[in-house]
Amino acid sequence: MNDVARAAGVSLKTVSNVLNDYEFIRPATKQRVQDAIAELGYEANLTARSLRSGKTSMLGLVLSDLAAPYYAELAAKLMKAASRRGYRVLVEQSDAQSEAELNALRGPFRQLTDGLLFTPLSIDADAIAERAGKKPLVMLGEHIMDPRFDLVTMKNEEAAAALTKHLLNSGRRRIAVLGASPEESAGSAGLRLNGYRRALEQAGVAFDPALIASGVWRRDGGAGAVAGLLDSGVQFDAVFGLNDVLALGALHELLIRGLRVPQDVAVAGFDDIDEARFASPSLTTVSPGMDEIAERSITLLLDRLAGRETAGQGVHIEAGFELKIRESAP
């Protein structure tokens, strides 16, 4: 910066003001400084700047699996929302391992970032509270819904009920659910299953545990769950995958077994990932407000950083949703 100041014939403070976009600088002076910066190839020392200011302009994002389409698309939207506000996002994949989740709360990753967006799957609320420190933290997802923490999530139960109601209104009565077990009631799977059960009850349709098929939330999990139902002789006329990749796996299995979608079996998912629009047939699904989740979580985190949000307890936000009715379940 001293070299730039000498080359431009200005003070060190003026160079600093130009670098920090101080608005009350004469255009000619600003241009001389910018020309000197270009000529000398000067780059600001961000490490020194962060040590001086205590800010890194970096946000942390911890996700369990970046290969999962929903997480990948959400990460991209979070990065764009942060960038519009002058922040970058560092991403850490935890693989749903407790050690990795705990390390994200303490250590180099946390030190490099001003605040954290966190989707824990293995550790509990007390472990997070013990290690969270003073930097702001916003939870994403449904694994931990604790009043001590800020949370941005989706209307899982309400959205699942709306989708199930759509299937019922189209005449389906034997709706198989993929990705849960009959006794679940918490987390993403449990909440979506609760919504399904609520819609059945309101329609006067009996809940049948035989229609609930467990499976990992991947394409092979959906294919395997449907194969198990077909091989066991369970009768069903619709499939509700608790996420889109489960539904896409189910769609593939039904088609190779010679069943027509939607004529024989309607198929629906949840998340509205980009692939859902381009499946054949295109996938009916829930769009859970991914854009809103990204915008509101970044805003909440930065409001905490700036002291604009001072509520003592956590702020809980649920994004809106929309049914996307497509060819697989019209």
Short summary of the structure?
The chain is of the alpha/beta class and 330 residues long.
Radius of gyration: 25 Å
Strand arrangement in the largest pleated sheet: 2-1-3-4-5-11
Listing every helix as H and every strand as E from the N terminus to the C terminus, the arrangement reads HHHHEHEHHEHEEHEHEHEHEHEHEE
| Beta content | 5-15%
Question: If you average the pLDDT, what whole number results?
Answer: 92
Q: The CATH topology of the largest domain is what?
A: Rossmann fold
* CATH class descriptor name of the largest domain: Alpha Beta
What coarse outline follows from CA principal-axis ratios?
elongated
| Quaternary structure of the protein | single chain
Instruction: Say which CATH homologous superfamily of the largest domain is assigned.
Output: Response regulator
Structural class: alpha/beta
The major sheet is characterized as: 6 strands, parallel
Distance between the termini: 64 Å
Which architecture of the largest domain would the CATH scheme give at its second level? 3-Layer(aba) Sandwich
Number of strands: 12
Give the tally of structural domains: 3
Keywords: DNA-binding
Protein name: DNA-binding LacI/PurR family transcriptional regulator
